[in-house]
Amino acid sequence: MQPQEAAGASAHDVQVEPIEPVAFEPADVRSEKPLIEEDPGPPLPDVPPDAPIPRSAEVTGVRHEADEVPAAPGRAETAGYIEEGEPGEGAYLDSENRLSIQMLGLEGVLSPDSDRSRTAEEYRMIKRPLLTRAFGQNGVGGTHRNLIMVTSSVEGEGKTFSSLNLAISIAMEMDRTVLLVDSDLAKPGLSRLLKISNMPGLTDRLIDDNVDLRDLLIKTDIPKFSVLPAGRRHRRSTELLASNTMRNLLDELALRYPDRVVLFDSPPLLATSEASVLAEQMGQICLVVESAVTPQFLVQDAVGQLSSADNVSLLLNKCKPDLFLGKYGYGYGYGYGYGYGYGYGYGNEDR
Question: Which of 17, 151, 249, 305 minimizes the number of CB atoms within 10 Å of its CB?
Answer without folding.
Answer: 17
